[in-house]
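Lab channel / #folding
Pinned by the channel admin:
"Please post every new chain as: sequence first, then the structure tokens as a reply. Keep commentary short and put observations after the output so the thread stays searchable."

First post following the new format, from NK:
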Amino acid sequence: MKVFLSVGMHGRTMEEIHHDITKMKKELHRLYPDKDLSFVDNADCVGVDDDGRLYYLGEAIKKMDRCDAVYFHSDYKKHKGCLIEEKVCELYGLTKIVQGR
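Reply from TO:
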């Protein structure tokens, strides 16, 4: 199962983001021990200096297109990009998993 990891990034350091991603991967392996899991995220997306937040959101949605499920960080509702990713997940029938539920 290929899983996109939806983690809020705005106002956070890359260290905080990568810490959360590592934790989420471990949790998914624990939740789905019999599944062959692979992960996709947008934490290392590189743009140019004038690329804005919508550029990065677009790149995340492109990556979601290749996934079976989306795993949302527990505080995803605090981040606009994650809320849009949630809507895309629902509209396109991807499995939605929320951390801590």
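NK: The mean pLDDT is 91.
TO: also worth noting, The chain has three helices and four strands.
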